[in-house]
Write a structure and sequence with these properties.
Distance between the termini of chain A: 68 Å
Largest interface: A-B, 88 and 92 residues
Oligomer: heterodimer
Number of domains of chain B: 1
Number of helices of chain B: 11
Radius of gyration of chain B: 19 Å
Number of strands of chain B: 1
Radius of gyration of chain A: 27 Å
Helix content of chain A: 55-70%
């Protein structure tokens, strides 16, 4: 075996992926072999990439080189892995390996196995493209990989192309993504006009330092990367595209793909364009708060398991932006301690979200496979039939609800610290109030997420099955369970050893422009410290021990009679207790729907169907829905306006050759006149 | 190092034990005072202990549809309440486990217990469990930002989020009588009422379907399981009152571990918690229970008060 050399690892793994793709295509007649080659190969490549990234962080020195050189034109695709790239590559690998393994079992399902070759090839293309996005050293490489990533994702979203909903979702995704890519290209062109080279470092060092051009650039990049990240109000594609894709792909999209937007925001928007202006940081915090709150509120109303998880991605992107915005404001004020807290919180949450959301999506995939439905109103009682999936899903639910000692708590704790510690010493009145409001918003978001996951877990996995499919469900195969168990263990590990994660993050934060060597916010591998110890510190492991102590007391107290419980039917108020008398997900979230009625604008229809006499009702139809505010009030008018303009343009494009020749002549004359006029 | 660790463990055990021992008394005392206000005799002061002893000795009865989550729920709820007691200074201006975390960890701990109990409530398939869980999580979600803001107002004034450090700072600076203290106290008092399931938010004495919140959530529990839930709820209530007492009037709290100081601290703490218990009783006896959909208004009053407290102190 060759010694591991991180310098060339990236081109080698990408070439390896190409080989895997070729071999998969060659095996197109034999889906079982194709699956094995594609997904085992993908997992191996991801492991190598992850090791390379870890090596970069450990050594503290980046690696760079050339991926592809075209001799004649001198065009080169180059990569450069620095701290930030390495961190996102680690996040990618942490999730891509379990997903690849999971796919071995998931794609084998009769529903998908006919598409093994397609899924295997496209998955490899997608992972390779995302790796290149994170590692790209110059704009050309970045944009090529970015586009490849978008197209591969769109192809995966229409895996079930017979479904009209899938095709629509992919179309919406492509339109929104290209809107974003257009903004990115405009931004990079504007930057490139002032720079002699296209590598990121040269390009960003020539960014304008003052004037309105800076604001324009920020806006272009914010929209461009924001579309991919799924920030409100650019999120509309996300809840459509995530559920349409096969669930393992949804996990990848939610865990990694939308993080490419965050990567771009951190690299270019937040710190690439010089010291951030105060207004930028405030904008990021406001957009983050809005995304977090609206994401979780819309998630609460979803009873489709995958859509619910998709809306939670918007929420978590919001939490990531809250930390990032606090960090930006900290840097504006020259408070590098606050900036370090905020950016660490943000990057930590990027990893945590990838782990717990990946876990939840993989669990949901098993449930959908076993029952054939995504509607949690048709599930129930699954914990008896799918004990391992249920346990892993519960751990993921606890983590995403920000409960100690799991990993969601650790990064949300840091985000709170960025707000609260940042509050001390800031001077602008606006900022002064923004910080505690941000904290309160985060608290509300976390508590609502907990409510949502009590619903998602409780209704799907507990009590009586609500449909035959749920009653006859069976546990996923081991190859699908093992990745979930690993991710669940990671949820706990990342929560109990926050200091270790922060230690790994130190070189990443230090590599960002404008950051001094970071203050130590990791008090040993198990603790986090904010503001010189006296402000706050947390040791989740110690708390875990206290919790276990409490549990031991509880067990001792009930030991005498706890072992042998008498089992009796649940009291059904005198009637028989069936699945129809159980509490539903709709009912569970109804109080919140009425409390936030101003946002949801719920409507309902009750219709009683009678047969002979109006006094004997045969059936009652109940329909309740909430208004999709953004789709209806922002995007529909926009689409109508675009269509109207396009309709008007039809006059020009009448199809007459003579008219087109006339346009050409008119254009040439105008240009000649213009040149003559200017010279 | 080792004696330190033993000291921490010993102090934690003592404090958790003490809180567990005192908690049932508080609940009965409130019941008794409430009865007196209604010209009734009320239960004997030790009734809380009798009830727990009886429940623990009973045979556990569980629903046949329930899974292990149903069994784990009360145990985790109890464990979280016990763990939470070690994060708050009670008699001494030091929390035994203050090195483990501060306000955010405390709030997280209580949220963990609530999550466990609400999830378990859905496990029997009874509509009551779902109804209670839904309402409890809704009110908790609305109360959490107000609780956080109220605590932040006090914490940011002292410049620390750690409850032990915070109480020591408050003792050192003496009574401040800043108007923001009053506002934050009022805001937090409302939240304590909401979180402990008291009138006007919830009625701990009712078993009427339409008005139950917490009681509906735990309706299916019996025997030792129910004992754990009841006990943990009592501990939580005592913990919230202690938090209010020590954050806003830390008079008399011991700053050293001497018998005399501890005795004074015990007397002061008992007295102050008793005063707050009277306040809770009076509020409960003179108000009608609010409709569920009026509760958000009450909570937003609390949110507004906490926000004002922050604004007048820092603007």
């Amino acid at each position: 075996m060759m010694p591991f050399d991180s310098a060339n690892a990236l081109p080698v793994t990408l070439a390896f992926r190409l080989g895997v793709i070729a071999l998969t295509l060659a095996l197109s007649g034999r889906s079982r072999a194709a699956r094995r080659v594609a997904f085992v190969g993908s997992a191996m490549a991801s492991v190598v990439t992850g090791l390379m990234a870890a090596d970069v962080l450990r050594a503290g020195a980046g690696v760079d080189g050339v991926l592809l050189l075209h001799q004649a034109s001198g065009l080169a695709l180059v990569y450069a892995v620095d701290g930030l790239s390495a961190w996102f590559l680690i996040v990618l690998s942490v999730l891509a390996v379990p997903i690849a393994v999971y796919n071995l079992g998931y794609v084998a399902h009769p529903h998908l196995s006919g598409r093994s070759v397609f899924l295997g090839v496209t998955f490899n293309v997608l992972v390779g493209a995302v790796e290149t996005v994170f590692a790209a050293g110059d704009v050309i490489t970045f944009l090529c990989a970015w586009e490849l990533m978008t197209l591969a994702t769109a192809a995966l979203v229409v895996t079930e192309h017979e479904e009209r909903a899938s095709r629509r979702a992919a179309y919406l995704y492509l339109v929104m993504s290209h809107l974003g890519t257009g903004c990115l290209i405009a931004g990079f062109l504007a930057l490139a006009s002032a720079s002699e080279a296209l590598t990121f470092s040269t390009l960003l060092s020539h960014a304008p330092t003052d004037g309105s051009m800076r604001n324009v650039l920020f806006a272009l990049f914010f929209v461009g990367f924001g579309v991919k990240a799924g920030i409100v109000p650019l999120h509309v594609w996300l809840p459509e595209a995530h559920p349409a894709a096969p669930t393992s792909i949804s996990a990848f999209m939610s865990g990694v793909l939308i993080k490419t937007g965050i990567y771009g925001l951190v690299r270019v928007c937040a710190f690439g364009l010089g010291v951030p202006l105060l207004s930028w940081g405030v904008l990021v915090v406001v957009v983050g708060g809005l995304s977090a709150l609206l994401g979780v509120l819309y998630a609460l109303m979803q009873h489709d398991l995958k859509r619910l998880l998709a809306y939670h991605s918007i929420e978590n992107i919001g939490i990531i932006l809250l930390g990032l915005g606090a960090g930006m404001i900290g840097l504006t004020y020259g408070r590098s301690d606050v900036a370090t807290l905020g950016v660490s919180a943000s990057l930590y949450h990027v990893l945590n979200h990838a782990v717990f959301k990946g876990l939840l999506f993989l669990g949901a995939g098993g449930v959908v496979m076993a029952t054939g439905t995504r509607q949690i109103e048709r599930l129930g009682g699954l914990l008896h039939r799918m004990p391992w999936t249920g346990l892993c899903f519960l751990i993921g639910a606890l983590a995403i609800s920000g409960l100690p000692p799991l990993n969601g708590f650790a990064s949300e704790w840091l985000t709170f610290q960025a707000f609260l510690f940042g509050f001390r010493g800031s001077t602008e009145p606006l900022v002064h109030l923004l910080f505690p409001i941000g904290g309160a918003l985060l608290a509300l978001t976390t508590a609502l997420a907990a409510a949502c996951f009590v619903k998602a877990f409780g209704i799907s996995f507990l009590a009586l099955p609500r449909s035959r499919a749920a009653a006859e469900a069976h546990e996923s195969p081991a190859v699908m369970l093992a990745p979930q168990v690993c991710l669940a263990a990671l949820c706990l590990g990342l929560g109990v050893f926050p200091g270790f994660v922060l230690g790994t993050l130190n070189p990443v934060v230090a590599s960002l422009p404008g950051f001094p060597p970071p203050a130590d916010i990791a008090g040993g591998s198990m603790a986090m410290v904010s503001g010189l110890e006296s402000f706050d510190r947390v040791v989740p492991a110690m708390f875990g021990v206290a919790l276990m102590g409490g549990a031991v007391v509880a067990l001792l107290l009930t030991a005498r009679r706890g072992a042998t419980a008498r089992r009796v039917p649940t009291w059904g108020c005198g009637g028989e207790l069936t699945a129809r008398t159980e509490y539903t997900a709709t009912a569970f979230t109804k109080p919140l729907m009425l409390i936030f009625a101003a946002l949801y604008r719920p409507s309902r229809q009750v219709e009683a169907l009678t047969e002979v006499s109006p006094y004997f009702t045969r059936e009652v139809r109940y329909r309740s829905e909430i208004e999709p505010t953004f789709e209806r009030h922002v995007y529909e008018p926009l689409v109508r306006a675009v269509l109207r303009v396009a309709g008007g343009m039809k006059v020009l494009q009448a199809g007459s050759l003579h008219a087109y020749l006339g346009y050409v002549i008119a254009m040439v004359v105008t240009l000649v006149l213009f040149v003559w006029w200017t010279s | 190092m080792i004696p330190d660790a033993f000291l921490t463990i010993g102090a934690s055990l003592l404090q958790a034990g003490g809180m567990l021992a005192a908690a049932p008394l508080l609940r009965t005392a409130i019941k008794k005072m409430k009865a007196r206000l209604q010209n009734r005799q009320g239960p004997p002061l030790l009734q809380g202990y009798y009830d727990l002893a009886k429940l623990i000795r009973k045979e556990p009865v569980r629903s046949e549809t329930a899974s292990w989550v149903y069994v784990a729920g009360p145990r985790v709820y109890f464990a979280a309440a016990v763990a939470a007691t070690t994060l708050v200074p009670v008699l001494v201006a030091v929390a035994p486990l203050e090195a483990a975390g501060g306000i955010l960890l405390l709030v997280g701990t209580l949220a963990f217990g609530r999550f466990a109990l609400a999830t378990a409530a859905l496990d029997t398939g009874s509509p009551f469990g779902g109804m209670g869980a839904s309402r409890d999580m809704t009110i908790a979600a609305l109360a959490e930002p107000a609780l956080m803001l109220g605590l932040f107002a006090q914490a940011l004034a002292a410049g620390t989020m750690n409850l032990g450090v915070l109480v020591r700072a408050l003792v050192q600076q003496g009574p401040s009588w800043h108007p923001s203290d009053l506002l934050a106290f009022a805001g937090l008092f409302i939240i304590v009422i909401a979180e402990t399931g008291r009138i006007p938010v919830d009625n701990p004495a009712t078993h009427l379907e339409l008005t139950m919140i917490h009681e509906a959530m735990v309706l299916e529990y019996a025997g030792p399981d129910l004992a754990l839930v009841e006990w943990a709820s009592a501990v939580k209530e005592l913990l919230y009152l202690t938090l209010l007492v020590n954050l806003f009037m830390p008079v008399g709290i011991a700053t050293s571990v001497e018998t005399e100081a501890l005795f004074v601290a015990l007397m002061a703490w008992t007295g102050k918690v008793f005063l707050l218990a009277i306040a809770v009783t009076v509020v409960e006896s003179t108000n009608a229970k609010l409709r569920l959909f009026r509760v958000p208004e009450l909570v937003s009053v609390s949110l507004g008060l906490a926000f004002l407290a922050l604004a007048i102190r820092f603007l």
